[in-house]
Specification:
The chain is of the alpha+beta class and 309 residues long. It contains 9 helices and 16 strands. The strands form 4 sheets. It has a 7-stranded mixed sheet, sandwiched between helices. Strands 11-10-12-16-13 form a 5-stranded mixed sheet, sandwiched between helices. Strand 5 and strand 6 form a beta hairpin. Helix 1 packs antiparallel against helix 2 and helix 7 runs parallel beside helix 8. The longest helix has 24 residues. The chain starts with a helix and ends in a 7-residue tail after the last helix. 45% of the residues are buried.
């Protein structure tokens, strides 16, 4: 399956407008809730997902949708009115009923869109880094992805997209899209490591010390995939719970990095697979790199089994 240039423009525009929605809530204020899995969700998550699903439904009516959020009874009438106030102020047309479109998952199809309406919700709540991600998979193969990061380098909006076998591109601020690629650093000791601010494990810094990395940055969201893809960073180490690793968190960044020339594997050196709504891995985390010393890092992990004790 291939996605057309016109379809790329439409999905990129969806992400741009979703950023307008989430930034609107940052200025106006938003309610937060705790989901059954104890993770946070905000009213902006719901507003962003409703908009994204409504537009994907219009453009790709035959496709299936996998999305993170489901309707919550805690979202009351006042919350719904605030969401529609957002759409009205931003001149965004939503044709569907709130609950119906939030829970809409499309038709049964092997062509599936994944949606993360706000990746890095804790970062969003604290005014830090967050992202919006959309991915496309067809017959279990990655096809296309878009990631929007509202406060990327120098606090400017950055939009990234990847098209299978056609490379990765990025737009920073008001500038047009240009191809991006990972950097060509080969010496691991010169690497800049990026890792999670709110979802970290001790083994990450243990491994960094073993391989000699002393430059690192902690940020939230799939913006870390973007940093590897455009050469801003060299290595991303991501702890994962194998039972709670979802397609919407990893597919967009995975394709972006690989199309930019990098490598994404789990800690055992296996490439993640995407089945149903899950990201399937054989070890408790990911190694995302520019690819120049990837096997060396994996070998170091294999030789240090006590890292995870």
């Amino acid at each position: 399956m291939k996605i057309t240039d016109q379809e790329i423009k439409l999905v990129v525009e969806i992400v741009r407008n979703a950023i307008r929605i989430t930034e609107w809530f940052k200025k106006k204020g938003f309610q937060s809730y705790i989901k059954q899995d104890h993770s946070p969700v905000t009213l902006a998550d719901f507003a962003s997902q409703i908009y994204i699903i409504s537009k994907l439904k219009e453009i790709f009516p035959e496709d299936s949708i996998i999305a993170e959020e489901n309707f919550s009874t805690e979202v009351n009438l006042a919350s719904k009115k605030l969401i529609y106030s957002c759409y009205n102020e931003l001149d965004l047309d939503i044709k569907y009923h709130f609950k119906d479109i939030l829970n809409y998952r499309g038709k049964l199809s092997e062509t599936r869109w994944s949606i993360d309406p706000i990746d890095g919700t804790k970062g969003y709540q604290e005014g830090l880094s967050y992202a919006i991600g959309i991915g496309l998979i067809d017959n279990l193969k990655m096809v296309f992805s878009v990631i929007g990061v509202p406060n990327y380098s120098n606090n400017q909006i950055a939009i990234f997209y990847a098209n299978k076998s056609r490379g990765a591109n990025a737009s920073y601020g008001d500038r047009g899209f240009k191809p991006i690629s990972v950097n060509d650093k080969k010496n691991v000791k010169d690497y800049l490591l990026c890792y999670s601010l709110h979802y970290d494990e001790p083994w990450v810094m243990k491994l960094a010390k073993i391989i000699g990395i002393n430059k690192y940055i902690q940020i939230d969201s799939m913006a870390k995939f973007c940093m590897i893809a455009d050469g801003s960073a060299d290595l991303y180490l991501k702890p994962m719970n194998k039972d709670r690793s979802f397609i919407w968190d990893f597919l967009p960044g995975h394709l972006l990095v690989t199309e930019a020339g990098g490598i994404v594997t789990d800690l055992m050196g296996q490439v993640p697979q995407y089945i149903d709504d899950k990201c399937i891995i054989s070890g408790p985390g990911l190694v995302v790199s520019n690819g120049k010393s990837h096997e060396e890092i994996i070998e170091t992990i294999r030789n240090n089994p006590t890292l995870f004790n």
